[in-house]
Amino acid sequence: MRRLIVSFWVVLMACPGFAQSPESPEPSTGLEYVLLATAQTSTMQEEMRRVAATGYRFVAVQGGGTVFGGSEVVAVMSRNPEAEGGPTYDYLLLATTRTSTMQKELQGAGAAGYTYAGQTVFPTGLGSKEVVVILERGGCEPEGDAYEYRLLGTRRTSTMHEELNAAAAEGFTLVGMTESQMTFGVTELVSILHRRSEGGASMRVSGIALGSSATTLGIGGTATLTPTVFYCDGTSEPLDYEWIPSDGSYLHLTESGRLTAVAPGSREFTMNYWGYTASVVITVLPR
After folding, report:
1. Taking Cα atoms as reference points, which of 133, 131, 135 lies closest to residue 123?
2. Cα separation of 62 and 257, whole Å?
3. CA-CA distance, 250 to 282, in Å (whole number)?
């Protein structure tokens, strides 16, 4: 990961080909910019989150080739060093060559409080170009909204014209458009649209918790992990979470979260849900 921090006393103008956040910081003087460049989208997500924790916010993103024949994703973030006490933001990067997969992931992220910030394309080592979408979450501040997303992918502009108008009639607004290329050379125009969810802030996730019907078991005893999701309106509900089954040294875990104690010891179970993490420790007592 390469990082460059610069300070400008001028406005950063929009550059052709750069995808910019629809809610990027208002133009001002005295901004500090940080440029992040990496060949891996997962690394970019980690760096954006780390830099955002120091007050920076996403401005623009661009994917493309390097002078050495490789590929990089470059993101620009900015902050006002004189501003204090402002909100901090969390970032999520989604990358795929399949629009159906991106659609599903966007819907889940939108329900978790993330909103569209920008998109670009990133050449892969297999000769394809995957769509990279950056999503932003700023907590439960009053101006926040929850969004529902729709992806449109087609090789024909006439078809895209019809689909865009049909989506607009349902209340969707176009927020970004890029070109994606499959491994076998088929090029597709990908458009991302969103509309405010009917649930509004009630759908925006504010946190999660992980409990258990029992945290101490005897050998042969059973318990069930109980994930809970909390929303910005103060409500909560059980979370339908799919666990990876495992036969551990002390406890066996099923896909539904049911535990069976098999030997004395302790084990920590951790779940991750759209940027939130929660865990619980279960102890098995000797006979």
Report:
1. 131
2. 41
3. 9
Mean per-residue pLDDT, 107-113:
82
User: What pLDDT digit, counting tens, does each position of 82-109 carry?
Assistant: 776 667 888 999 987 777 788 888 888 8
Residue 28 tokens read as 């001002």
**Strand blocks (E) in the chain:** 2-7, 19-20, 32-38, 57-65, 71-79, 90-96, 115-123, 129-137, 147-154, 173-181, 187-196, 205-212, 216-218, 222-231, 236-238, 246-247, 251-253, 258-261, 265-273, 276-285
CA atoms within 13 A on the CB side of 231: 16
Q: pTM score, two decimals? A: 0.69
The domain spans of the chain are 2-201, 204-285
Whether the CB-CB separation of 215 and 225 falls below 8 Å is answered with: no
pLDDT score recorded for residue 142: 53
Of 1.20.120, 2.60.120, 3.90.930, 2.60.40, which CATH number belongs to 204-285? 2.60.40
Which residue is it, tokens 């999701």? 229
How many whole angstroms separate alpha carbon 258 and alpha carbon 280?
Answer: 14
Distance CA 268, CA 208 (A): 16
